[in-house]
């Protein structure tokens, strides 16, 4: 990615946070209590044209919640999101019908996303080729494996050529050839001044695909910077946790935080 292309922000998140109110049911005879989960703690960033941003963090760290706020599916508890066009969250807005064939769903999905019938017809071959599910395209979607369904859904969403795309784990299900095609499709989107957010548990995927990464832990923004640097630090942290060395992991987290977030977005533009 050419650094000089990184100019205009497509999304600005200003001091956004998200709390969920959760009702805890106690044991037999005890009263129901309500408590608050701080899924995303106040954070800010700007995401620019041409940026492919990976979100990393352990389970429950707030990655999906952040995507839902960016997509406008959750109202942030504090702060605001400004976007240059409506972000598309993969998997949510495709109103697909499991009783219909993949081919019929391509048509339905394209129309549901606002393409005209002529545009839907024009997009059809592109979508089917990108999904790469072969003859299964003529079978009802109810018969699809979860990977095939995810690939078709993903390809339909791309047919609309969204400028801001939010992807929650969708790529985890593809084989190497599919992922290669998806990566090409996304590079096209990035070259056309788009911005992509990708949640993926594999730090390696983030390192390979993204040019920037944000690391969340317990809803807090730990690091925001070069994908390679963030992914490597996160992987080392996760490795220590997996080994059961919580003290070392806590030290790495604290160190990453000091390298941290502040200034990355503002400084990198030289503005
Ligand atoms: N609808 C909800 N109601 C209440 N709490 C929720 C809800 N959705 C998520 N949470 C809580 O918010 C926190 C962040 O969850 P979130 O799904 O955003 O994490 P994540 O990083 O995407 O996790 P994972 O990697 O496991 O998918 C967790 O503590 C989770 O239990």
UniProtKB/TrEMBL annotation:
Entry keyword ATP-binding: yes
Any Gene Ontology CC annotation: membrane
A Pfam family recorded for this sequence: ABC_tran
SMART domains the record matches: AAA
CDD domains: ABC_KpsT_Wzt (cd03220)
InterPro entries: AAA+_ATPase (IPR003593), ABC_transporter-like_ATP-bd (IPR003439), ABC_transporter-like_CS (IPR017871), ABC_transpr_TagH-like (IPR015860), Bact_Polysacc_Export_ATP-bd (IPR050683), P-loop_NTPase (IPR027417)
One Gene Ontology term of the molecular function aspect: ATP binding
Signal sequence range: none
Keyword Transport appears in the UniProt entry: yes
Protein family membership: Belongs to the ABC transporter superfamily.
Protein known as: ABC transporter domain-containing protein
Organism expressing this protein natively: Rothia aerolata
